[in-house]
Amino acid sequence: MLSRIAESLYWIGRYVERAEDTARILDVHLHQMLADPWVAEDAACRSLLSVMGAPTSDDMPLSAGRVVTLLGLDSGNPSSVIGALAAARENARGARETVSSEMWECLNATWLGLPDARARVEQQGVHAFFGWVRERCAVLAGLADATMSRDEGWLFLVLGRSVERVDMSARLLSTHARAGGSIPSWLTLLRSCGAWETFLRTYRGSLDDRHAAEFLLLDRLFPRSVFAALSTAESCLAELAPGPGRAGVATDAQRIVGRSRTNLEFRGADELLDDLAGVLAGLERTCSQVNDAVSRRYFRATSAVMWVSEAVA
Predict the structure, then answer these.
(1) 82 with 74: CB under 8 angstroms?
(2) Which of these, 122, 148, 108, lies nearest to 1 by C-alpha position?
(3) Do 264 and 226 form a contact (C-beta atoms < 8 A)?
(4) CA nearest to 86, candidates 63, 117, 119, 108
(5) pLDDT tens digits along 40-91
(6) pTM
(7) Cα-based angle 171, 104, 236 (whole degrees, multiple of 5)
(8) Nearest of 7, 12, 51 to residue 137 by alpha carbon
(9) Domain residue spans in the chain?
(10) What does residue 86 show for φ and ψ, rounded to 5 degrees?
(11) What region holds the DUF403 domain (predicted)?
């Protein structure tokens, strides 16, 4: 496979996952701000923007509308919902010969609907807009699953999606640490991941720190858990790489992902909770390092669009 095509498919996976996860996070957090009359809107907005890597200005107060504009409607920002969907469509243009016509039509129809996004928000509200985004991303995921051969193109698409899912999950969990580890914070996290009902069935309604952390970080069966996403990425890398020979693994990316997965797998939920900030920072570093390693090995030399970490900002 041409490196150009592989890179396009990898970033389609990342951008679509980024758009969906950002829409989920914004939808739930904005609803929580509206439902809780005691929440400090400016502080909550700054915390969310900081976790998502968006720059903030100290000299002007922030509102929920400003957050929606920055993280949802800013077409010039590839980390916003609209920017990520537009970037995914642009990458699909360069890989038309490998994506199915149904996938291209889905992405193109979504892109054609983006200019009306601001009007959709004003007329129907942010919940309707974010619901539309989630539905479009789900349609694309279903079409990819139903129409793509399980070849190298599929592996790069799923690899990009899994790496982005780990990164977004780590950022989402960072909001819990900033909220002081409260039970309402865990409820918000589970709903942001679409995991609330599955969590209730798994733990029979017992919502506490240990169970929530165990489910979002370590669950093997829930596809949006960090461990499941790392395992999927590791499987894709193993199929893409040549045989490892007699020792170790064949690529740096496999080594990085495998080390991170092992670090999670053999630590208990209580131990992870005690060092939650360090674990999440390590996961974000893992995603950045994996992206660099995959780019060096499989793609042409270009500067990738990456999140801006809070430490750098």
Answers:
(1) yes
(2) 148
(3) yes
(4) 108
(5) 778 778 878 877 877 776 667 788 888 888 898 888 888 899 999 999 999 9
(6) 0.89
(7) 50
(8) 12
(9) 3-299
(10) -65, -40
(11) 1-299
